[in-house]
Amino acid sequence: MGLIVALVTMFAVASVQADEVLLVNGDRISGTLVELTDGKLSIKTTYAGTITIDWTQVQTFSTDNPLYVTFGENTVRATIPSGDSGTATIESEDLDSADSIDMANMKSLSYEPKPAVRTSGWVNIGASTASGNTNVDKLNANAEFAARTDKNRFTVGGQINRAKDNGAETELNWLAYMKYDHFISKQWYAYANASGENDDFKDINLRTTLGGGGGYQVFETKKTYLLLEFGANYVSTDFTTAKDQDYPAARFALDFSRKLFDTEMEFFNRDAYFGSLDDSGNAFLRTRTGLRMPVIERLDTTIQFNYGWDGNPAPGRRSEDKLWLFTLGYRW
Question: Structure pTM?
Answer without folding.
Answer: 0.76
